[in-house]
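Re: beginner question about structure tokens

> Can someone show what the tokenized structure looks like for a real chain? I only ever see the sequence side.

Sure, here's an example I had lying around. Input first:
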Amino acid sequence: MQMKKDRRKFLGTASIILSASLAYPNNSFSILNLKKMNTVRIGVIGTGSRGMGLMRILAKTGGVTMIGICDTLPFRLKEASKIAPKSKIYSSHLDLLENKELDAVIICTPLNTHAQIASDAVDANIHIYCEKTMAKGAKATADLVHKVMNSHKKVFQTGHQYHSSRLYSHVVELIQGGKIGKVNSIRAQWNRNGNWRRPVTDKKLERQINWRMYREYSFGLLAELSSHQIDFANWLFDSNPEKVTGFGGIDYWKDGRETYDNTHVIFAYPNGVKASYTCLTGNAKDDYKIYVMGDKGTIVLDYAKAWFYPEGSYTKEYGDVDGVSGATTNWEAGKGIPINYQHIDPTQQALEDFRDAIVNSEAPLSNIISGSKTAFAVDMGIHAMDQNKTIYWDSSYNF
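And the corresponding structure tokens:
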């Protein structure tokens, strides 16, 4: 129910996006034809680890079929073709976009290529699922938003998969409904203990395969990991950060990388809430967590579970609390009340939502505007760490 409410709210407050992204008046391929055909024909651009992960899910998802796969590295196409053996193989995304049977593309390429490939897909008049972060840098982000809003007549979904999580939607609804009182802080982390590198058999391919390590291609940890959690905060507050400060460094992995191996940033929101995001590659304690703190309690989220901690050093709650009968909690013992809510893997849900948005002519929850807010925030965070100063939200980012 909440997802439908959010979609109605989105449609009501962003009619310009609806007209730009979901109107089909001049297209030879109508939404009615798509429903009749009952399948969405997809091309996957970028068949690295993330791309093939999405392909494995798509191969098991009803209502979609992969008709094309594209990558610039032949060995990756060879591996990907095992997942989608009937798909046509392309070394250029422009050739794939010329396929007249294509309904949609999923863009899973290095960050610096997202904006251009998405722009080309707009020109091809097809539906777009663009992996996070949506674009690299403020200018590329703004240019893509303008183009999508002015000339795109199809669905544009950004790959922040937790935006599709039914658990996360439920938690957003709980918090906005006052479950933890007045929110005053968010603390998030995504910690790993490893160098984040992919194996390279040919040194000439180092930068192409390990693109996340190099500034030409990527903003590193903030864009690839923390962006999901930044997107969550923007979603929760229906807002964007006003300013950011932070620190980053290459302090542990002295291996030639150019993107930071640890990042620590703090965003300030118009409502006064400060949200901090930490990424480490030298310690994995507690892995992925989001702590949303209010004056009546705290909700903690991980990849697939959530817990409620009532405020106070020792608080007992009896009865049916979020589906847990007779629950008791002890803050000092670190035991929270599980928030039980039925949901599936967020990435699978995101891909199903993309399919459904196309078939049902709905605006996706993770869209060009929400994606741009996160991309702008990531760009701000990078500049704050690089320049060691506070960076402010630019009014030109408002769409």
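Each token stands for a local structural state, so reading them left to right follows the chain. The chain has two domains: 2-160+348-367, 166-342+380-391.
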